[in-house]
Amino acid sequence: MAVSALQPARVTPASAPLRAQRAAVDAAAVCQSSTALRSQRAAGQRRRAVAARAVPAAGKVYIDPVEKEAAAFAPATVANLGPGFDWMGCAVEGDGDVVTATVLPDRPGEVVIESIEGDGGRLSLDAPKNCVGIAAIETLKLLGAAPSCGVSLRLHKGLPLGSGMGSSAASAAASAWAVNSLFGGPVPKDKLIYVGLASEAAVSGYHADNIAPALMGGFILIRSCDPLDLQRLPFAGDLWFVLVNPRFEAPTAEMRAVLRKEVPMKEVINNCAMGGSLVAGILTGDAALIGKALDSDAIVEPVRGPLIPGFAAVKEAAHGAGAFGCTISGAGPTAVAIVSDPEVGERVKAAMVAAFKSSGGLECNSAKVVRLDNEGAKRT
């Protein structure tokens, strides 16, 4: 997408008259926005504008945008990876979400969600209630000065909702990177993880195993979210995943509700050993070891798997077609398998799709063989 350049980023004092003028413009803009919103809703349109004020700590100076418009893409993610529940995730190539951020002149600090495509009309366009808007609001707070303009957002959903592929995290990561880019990218990706955590807390829980890889790419080990402490794990060479998303929704909140409050010590020991094996496989570039570890979760998969129609048969079919291992991606229902190469991946993909249909009665939204994404959020 072509991007129009403005002047280089600068921070300028805001005089009292200018602040008063900007406040008056703000009030008029919000009024106009509300009137337009009512009109659009009456017409049944999807384009709406709901503004939210971001209030930076430093209110005496303003930072100007360097571009009129910036678009960013963030990829799908696979969280948990078997025994890595809430502490391991990775980004994968292929589908993802795109957010386009546009400058709103003379409306400092406002965040407006202009439109959303690909969600079937299900997502809120009220900025404080949508992960895209929350991410934008929080990003503006990290710029180091108050923004001299507002931001309008357009979201294109490339990931299905409730898919277990980090849909909300992809939206938040793309939003944060697009808004940050409008102002010349003053906030590094690792700092934007805080933005994503605030967004994730509002929609799925306070965890970084999706938002961190969506922003940074690769494998991310989360040691702690409070305080934030993580490690990016390098993987040498290509790693291939099979992702099969059946036509069945598994909301994160519902899938978390089935988790046991207490688990036997034997299962804890198993998952500790398999978690160590997962990290070892990543660091040594051993896809087979990663697959074996991914296949051996004794705590989460056993209680979530039965909620996904046909999952047990899908796992068995993946093994039979040559996968190193298969488990649930995130909260599900997407099933993920590790394979040695794309050719094997195609066989595994076909077997998994067939098993979902024959044993679970489910058609599939998508089935793909993809590689590890080492870049994460990027400009488009």
TrEMBL record:
<dbReference type="InterPro" id="IPR006204">
    <property type="entry name" value="GHMP_kinase_N_dom"/>
</dbReference>
<dbReference type="InterPro" id="IPR014721">
    <property type="entry name" value="Ribsml_uS5_D2-typ_fold_subgr"/>
</dbReference>
<keyword id="KW-0418">Kinase</keyword>
<dbReference type="InterPro" id="IPR036554">
    <property type="entry name" value="GHMP_kinase_C_sf"/>
</dbReference>
<dbReference type="InterPro" id="IPR000870">
    <property type="entry name" value="Homoserine_kinase"/>
</dbReference>
<keyword id="KW-0028">Amino-acid biosynthesis</keyword>
<comment type="pathway">
    <text>Amino-acid biosynthesis; L-threonine biosynthesis; L-threonine from L-aspartate: step 4/5.</text>
</comment>
<keyword id="KW-0067">ATP-binding</keyword>
<keyword id="KW-0547">Nucleotide-binding</keyword>
<comment type="similarity">
    <text>Belongs to the GHMP kinase family. Homoserine kinase subfamily.</text>
</comment>
<feature type="domain" description="GHMP kinase N-terminal">
    <location>
        <begin position="138"/>
        <end position="218"/>
    </location>
</feature>
<dbReference type="Pfam" id="PF00288">
    <property type="entry name" value="GHMP_kinases_N"/>
</dbReference>
<dbReference type="GO" id="GO:0004413">
    <property type="term" value="F:homoserine kinase activity"/>
</dbReference>
<keyword id="KW-0808">Transferase</keyword>
<keyword id="KW-0791">Threonine biosynthesis</keyword>
<feature type="domain" description="GHMP kinase C-terminal">
    <location>
        <begin position="279"/>
        <end position="357"/>
    </location>
</feature>
<dbReference type="InterPro" id="IPR013750">
    <property type="entry name" value="GHMP_kinase_C_dom"/>
</dbReference>
<dbReference type="GO" id="GO:0005524">
    <property type="term" value="F:ATP binding"/>
</dbReference>
<protein>
    <recommendedName>
        <fullName>Homoserine kinase</fullName>
        <ecNumber>2.7.1.39</ecNumber>
    </recommendedName>
</protein>
<dbReference type="GO" id="GO:0009088">
    <property type="term" value="P:threonine biosynthetic process"/>
</dbReference>
<dbReference type="InterPro" id="IPR020568">
    <property type="entry name" value="Ribosomal_Su5_D2-typ_SF"/>
</dbReference>
<dbReference type="Pfam" id="PF08544">
    <property type="entry name" value="GHMP_kinases_C"/>
</dbReference>
<dbReference type="InterPro" id="IPR006203">
    <property type="entry name" value="GHMP_knse_ATP-bd_CS"/>
</dbReference>
